[in-house]
Description:
The structure is a single chain. By secondary structure, the protein is mainly beta. It has one domain: Beta Barrel (Lipocalin), CATH 2.40.128. It has one helix at about 1-20; strands at about 35-40, 45-50, 55, 65-70, 70-75, 75-80, 85-95, 105-110, 120-125, 125-130, 140, 145-150, 155. The strands form 4 sheets. It has a 6-stranded antiparallel β-barrel with strand order 2-4-7-8-9-12. A two-stranded antiparallel ribbon has the order 1-13. The longest helix is centred in the first third of the chain and has 17 residues, at about 1-20.
Amino acid sequence: MKRVLIIWLNVLCLVAIRNPQVFANTPIHNHQPPKCITLPTGTLVLLETAERTASERATIGKQVLFRVRANVVVDGQVVISTGALAIGRVKSIRKNTYNFPESLALEVTAVQTIDGRLVALHGNEQTFTGLFPGESMYVEPGQTMTASLMNNETIYLP
């Protein structure tokens, strides 16, 4: 049994010496430069809240998650896909009083592009107000917001 194993190892070594490409693990690459598209400043992004935010637990600056509602397309290429995550924050809180219900102002700050990077957004602040005076309120998932791209961004397509 040992002799058979030694013979097979010798045969494999001879094949490897005579034809090194047989055992090469290096894949052949077409070193093409990556395709990229410029996402212009001011591009509109339609978003929705992805989590429930309670006014009684909210603090100014608290992170809030959003998701993209519609693909953002530039030159026929999707650069921000539907469902991509976005990050925002609680910008201001107005506590409830006897005459006024509680309200939260939310702002979107960044969104994930198709190449996985977060790009800065200029979020339009949106205020959500409760229904009844003297009660706390909730921002439910699915509340629509908009934001626009803050800077020109180069997006690398897969």
